[in-house]
Design brief:
Length: 465
């Protein structure tokens, strides 16, 4: 990688001071940023120049909670279902019908869509299905690596079943629970793959534990996940208080339960946190556990609305996830942060909540903080060269006076022109290097999805008749 200067964009550094440059320059050398500043003051000698006039340059988005492999199960069969209906009657049988090629196609499609949306880092919660979890996790991790993305593959598992789940079962014969020795094997595999990918990718890809929820993961599994994060210097992921079932299965708040166990701390990446009260919010804020709000999927599944303004007012760390690719049904942080803003302005009847700069910060800086990435999330000399260039001169982006407002309320998500991750330009003029034949990949994914639904016995179109 040669020295490169990205010149002429409006640069949003997202640094602690909120520094902006109306006509800025970002210079990279290898995988690092070596200079950021006004274009007429930054030394660009010896650098290849990239003209970014008419654009906004900002850090790449961090998608802190998602399920990438499910992308082949969107577009029809996933609609008009509650969470466990969708999980047990679409996701479980659908994933069980995947071949290895289907899985590789799914992750490839997810990476293509993510990069085109300006995502540079992702936490992908993935549950291996079948007899060879190692091979499936390797396919997922290898495909993220080959795409050039930063990825945390969070291995989803469960080891107990609440009685309430049984009433939601339809066609699904899945939802198997591991035996005790299999739980040991799961953690051994997570440790082995984590060490391997941290080594061969220089930390670009890592593997974490992800017990599904407090309702379907035992105290032992939760404790082991937290201990694993400490021992391996990483994080652990968890779906927390997404639906009332978690509270009804125990009789009191799952946040309080974790707090009593001593498991709330900065290493926990807790998705959703919809059904929480003031005490829960205070405990999450005090612990510095990361809350990942998923506004679109929570609306899609009618799960509720997380009280994000109250969380932020309490000082909690809150970041953004697009969640499952088949309960959104897109990978588009720009669209999701607009939804987040509009939801809470409508609910609170307050047009001042969740200001545009705050929303962009949630999807960049706070995402990096949640994942423990010290050199990602803002633009400064010495930081990793992870950023996106967003075209801001199309008619729907004009006029633009506040670049944050333009990104949140005018952009649609397809304006991202270029993406750089660890100094490598993974997308140039909307063409993603690792998936250069996007048409062929899309055609392959459509065919794979149809075959998966057929093998799983899932109707491709949801009818309520």
């Amino acid at each position: 990688m040669s020295k490169t200067a990205w010149v002429g964009a409006r640069v949003l550094t997202m640094d602690p001071a909120g520094t902006e440059y109306a006509e800025g320059a970002v210079v990279t050398d290898g995988d690092r940023i070596v200079a950021v500043g006004a274009a007429d003051r930054v030394d660009t000698r010896g650098a290849e120049l990239v003209d970014c006039s008419g654009s906004i340059l900002l850090p790449g988005f961090v998608n802190a909670h998602t399920h990438a492999s499910q992308i082949l199960l969107r577009g029809g069969p996933n609609h008009s279902r509650g969470l466990y209906d969708w999980l047990l009657n679409v996701v479980v049988p659908g994933l069980a019908a995947y071949t290895d090629d289907d899985l590789r196609t799914a992750i490839s499609l997810y990476c293509l869509e993510s990069i085109r949306a300006g995502v540079t880092t992702v936490v992908a919660n993935e549950e291996p299905v079948g007899d060879n979890p190692r091979e499936q996790l390797q396919i997922i991790a290898d495909t993220f690596r080959d795409s050039g993305m930063r990825a945390r593959v969070a291995v989803l598992f469960r080891d107990q079943r609440p009685e309430a789940v049984g009433s939601e079962r339809g066609v699904s014969e899945g939802f198997d629970l591991p035996a005790g020795d299999e739980l040991d094997e799961t953690f051994a595999l997570i440790a082995e793959l984590g060490a391997h990918y941290r080594g061969v990718t220089a930390g670009m890809v890592d593997v974490w534990p992800s017990p599904a929820t407090t309702a379907v993961a035992s105290t032992k599994a939760l404790r082991r996940s937290a201990r694993h994060a400490v021992e391996h210097g990483g994080r652990w992921a968890l779906h927390l208080a997404e639906i009332p079932l978690e509270q009804s299965s125990r009789g009191y708040s799952p946040v309080r339960y974790l707090d009593e166990l001593g498991l709330l701390d900065h290493r926990l990446v807790a998705a959703h946190c919809v059904h929480v009260d003031g005490d829960d919010i205070a405990a999450l804020a005090a612990s510095r556990a990361a809350i990942v709000t998923n506004p679109v999927s929570n609306c899609f599944l009618a799960s509720g609305i997380a009280p994000v303004p109250a969380m932020l007012a309490a000082g909690a760390v809150v970041t953004l996830g697009t969640d499952d690719a088949n309960v959104n049904d897109a990978v588009n942080p720009i669209s999701d942060i607009k939804t987040l803003a509009l939801l809470h302005r409508a609910v609170t009847a307050d047009p001042t909540v969740l200001q545009p700069e705050e929303l962009v910060r949630m999807a960049t800086v706070d995402g990096a903080l949640a994942l423990g990435l010290q050199d990602v999330g803002h633009l400064a000399a010495g930081m990793a060269a992870d950023f996106q260039v967003v075209k801001a001169d199309d008619p729907h982006m004009i006029p633009s006076h506040d670049p944050y407002a333009t990104l949140v309320f005018q952009a649609l998500g397809h304006e991202v022109r270029d993406v750089v991750i660890a100094g490598k330009q993974v997308m140039r003029n909307r063409r993603v290097a690792a998936h250069s034949d996007a048409t062929q990949l899309s055609r392959r994914a459509q065919q794979a999805s149809a075959a998966v639904l057929d093998r799983a016995g899932i109707s491709p179109r949801r009818s309520l008749a």
